[in-house]
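Support request from a user on the community tier.

User writes: "When I paste my structure tokens into the form, the page sometimes reloads and wipes my input. The last time it worked, I copied everything first. Here is what I submitted, just in case something in the input itself triggers the reload:"
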């Protein structure tokens, strides 16, 4: 299933990703720190979505209360909740 998440409080404005059989694929950030976000996308490719969400949740960026990684975690949690409710 494909998901789109509009971020809040980060330079990245949107995250797109797929979850198939509980695994995360094709993570793409719109805007943000290009090199760092490409690296995050590569590191999480094919990983268990719940584990990625747990690992990245609460990560902050500078003085912000969130980060692109934290927003990805939030997006995954929301997507998994939608799957469970489907």
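"...and here is what came back when it finally went through:"
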């Amino acid at each position: 299933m494909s998901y789109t998440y509009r971020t809040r409080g980060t330079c990245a404005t949107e995250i797109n990703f797929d979850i198939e059989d509980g695994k995360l694929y094709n993570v793409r950030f719109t805007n943000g720190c290009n090199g760092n976000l490409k690296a995050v996308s590569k590191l999480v490719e094919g990983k268990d979505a719940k584990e990625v969400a747990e690992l990245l949740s609460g990560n902050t960026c500078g003085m912000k209360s969130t980060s692109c990684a934290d927003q990805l975690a939030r997006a995954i949690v929301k997507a998994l909740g939608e799957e469970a409710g489907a």
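Agent notes: The reload is a front-end session timeout and is unrelated to the input. The chain has a mean pLDDT of 96. Residues 2-85 form one domain. Escalated to web team.
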